[in-house]
Amino acid sequence: xxxxxxxxxxxxLAECEEVARLAEEAGFDRLGVSxxxxxxxxxxxQALCARAxxxxxxxxxxxNPYSRHPAVTAAAVKAARPSRAAFVxxxxxxxxxxxxxxxxxxxxxxxxxxxxxx
Length: 118
Hints:
The two termini are 24 Å apart. The chain has helices spanning 13-25, 42-52, 70-79, 103-116; strands spanning 4-7, 30-33, 57-60, 85-86. It has a four-stranded parallel β-sheet. By secondary structure, the protein is α/β, with parallel strands linked by helices. Helix 1 packs across helix 2 (42-52) and helix 3 (70-79) runs parallel beside helix 4 (103-116).
């Protein structure tokens, strides 16, 4: 069984790092970080959490394909620790999306992120 802790970064970056340390010390397997507009960038928070930990898998709970270009997302995933990265893409903020979500619109993200994570 995989146990995941999830949090929204409505706190300082130092507090985000501390949450990651505490989650790892508590034995969690994964740490999910919200990707919320106008809060600290999820990939910045994930990188800080990865730096503060050594084992826990880290990723965005869901990242929005309409507010992030696939190339930017791929670069962020590649810059993180790919062996510990978790990636989920979805459409959860209706005010951000400009068109209906479709599998075809997701293909650019999947094709950009998959090679970056290898």
